[in-house]
Predict the structure.
Amino acid sequence: MKPSRFSYLAADSVDNAIDMMRENGEDARYIAGGQSLVPMMNFRVAAPTALIDLNGVPELSKTQDGPNGQLQIGAMTRTRRLETDPSIAKKNPLLSAAAAHIAHFQIRNRGTLGGSIAHADPAAELPGIALVCEADIHLRGPRGPRIVTAADFFKGVFTTAADNRELIEKICFPHWPPQRRWAFKEISRREGDFALVGIAAWFDINDAGTISGCAIGAIGAGDTPMRLRRAENILRGSVPSIDLFREAADAVTADIDPLDDIHASGEYRCEVAAVLVKRTLTEAWECSQ
Ligand code: FAD
């Protein structure tokens, strides 16, 4: 199918894009890489009356250091850059590793960090990484700027705390200590497919050898990316060991609520999530000793 009729507007600055949104009303949409929006338009799942193209807005592609070692990544940064830019990998290796699992390189060449966060697919990698890294989402709209934590941003399937007219400017990831242990794992039917389930985890170890801080997140396990709080509580304050990771994995099912769909049953996803938590924590531990 072909999309319904729409007008096309090319913005050259954030202010210009927001003005265009104000003038074109509720049914206008921003377009970034187009890798989710265009297929949705072709299937007529989305029928925006106007597309406001962000590709000509240079300020949205900037990556810079923020206060306290923060990594600030512009919304129009391509997925492929997240995967391949060594300066991003150094400042957040988990983000880089997860980006490599997204679709195929042609899609990663076009798709953007901001587009994936705004689209909020519960099986998408980048929203899951934003959540597990406790990133902040910087929004700007006709009523001005605001910052929403990733924990408050994802509200449901394809639903976020941003209103239609708000633009994501950048995503800010907190400082990543160089000694942090981390890993990302997912299971999909074929390479390049969306994950059936994916797990991202990191933990820090203090001088006493116990886990001082940690986060474990799941994608494909509910209506939004999710934090696995019970498993995190088991890790915090304990000495890392395979038995501890097994105990954390056993607690996962109570925190997630995956649905059945044509790709896998909810029951299967629960089992996979538990296995992946154990594997992810083990890899994080063994690869960095
Ligand atoms: P677009 O498609 O341009 O926009 C998506 C939505 O976000 C639209 O509603 C748009 O209005 C809004 N938007 C975009 N930018 C902004 C902004 N700065 N501020 C506010 N709103 C904005 N994704 C995965 O995570 N994992 C996968 O395995 C995966 N596999 C894929 C396989 C295929 C075959 C395809 C076609 C896509 C796949 N994707 C996958 C989706 C891909 O990663 C998309 O690139 C991503 O979801 C959206 O990014 P985009 O820049 O293309 O956004």
